[in-house]
User: Which sequence fits this backbone?
């Protein structure tokens, strides 16, 4: 019952709707502005470059995962709903559910708009083939995989990375909400951290930790394909560890356990 309630609350809410709608509008605007309407003789990976690189989405990417469920901890704490929850479950279970569903909702909010954007590219574009492919991909991490399933495997890999990105930044918002009981701070601070890391992590190997670069993961062909997936997963794990430490301290103090 508690699991089903959290799943519903994390996915079906106004924050998710706003995040998905605004993101979708931003992504499809790049198609319209660049005249990508109707059937095209261009391959699907080249068409997908428009929302990825020309939509203006990247600078604000860390904001959207926060909206669906990133404020839920604060809302339950400030409304007193947490006390009702702790009458029906343990704080350990509450903590596990809060961490998972916050990240899941954040990841989903990133993936859904790109399913629409990539789906449109598949509908109007042509499958990637030896005769029709994006030349720039030969120099990137995706080069060895761009012909598989007509280019759709690369789009699937990107969707997985977007999910991990959304999961991570929703967890960052949760961590901030545990440390500071202010909705405005929870919304703004992840964005500030994201922008700061984007500007600072540009040299040498540090670029592999740059969140904006990881979002698209257009690394050189010498980079192992698994690298961005592993890095994002490790980042998620680190943030979750901090959430557990600080949330457990708060609950032990409140519940005297």
Assistant:
């Amino acid at each position: 019952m508690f699991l089903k309630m959290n799943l519903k609350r994390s996915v079906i809410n106004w924050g998710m709707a706003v995040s998905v709608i605004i993101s979708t509008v931003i992504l499809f605007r790049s198609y319209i502005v660049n005249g990508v309407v109707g059937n095209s003789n261009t391959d699907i990976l080249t068409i997908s470059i428009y929302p990825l690189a020309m939509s203006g989405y990247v600078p604000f990417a860390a904001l959207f995962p926060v909206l669906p469920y990133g404020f839920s901890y604060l809302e339950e704490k400030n409304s007193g709903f947490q006390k009702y929850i702790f009458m029906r479950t343990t704080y350990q279970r509450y903590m596990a559910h809060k961490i998972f569903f916050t990240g899941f909702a954040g990841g989903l909010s990133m993936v859904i708009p790109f399913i629409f954007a990539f789906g449109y590219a598949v509908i109007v574009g042509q499958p990637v083939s030896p005769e029709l492919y994006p030349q720039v991909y030969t120099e990137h991490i995706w080069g060895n995989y761009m012909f598989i399933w007509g280019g759709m495997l690369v789009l699937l890999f990107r969707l997985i990375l977007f999910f991990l990105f959304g999961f991570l930044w929703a967890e960052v918002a949760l961590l901030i909400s545990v440390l500071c009981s202010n909705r405005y701070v929870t919304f703004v601070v992840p964005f500030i951290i994201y922008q700061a890391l984007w500007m600072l992590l540009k040299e040498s190997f540090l670029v592999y930790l740059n969140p904006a670069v990881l979002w698209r993961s257009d690394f050189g062909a010498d980079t192992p394909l698994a690298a961005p997936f592993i890095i994002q997963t490790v980042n998620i794990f680190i943030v979750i560890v901090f959430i557990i430490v600080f949330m457990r301290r708060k609950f032990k103090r409140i519940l005297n356990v």
Q: What stands out?
A: The chain has one domain: 1-256. Residues 1-256 form one domain. The mean pLDDT is 93. DSSP finds eleven helices and no strands in the chain.
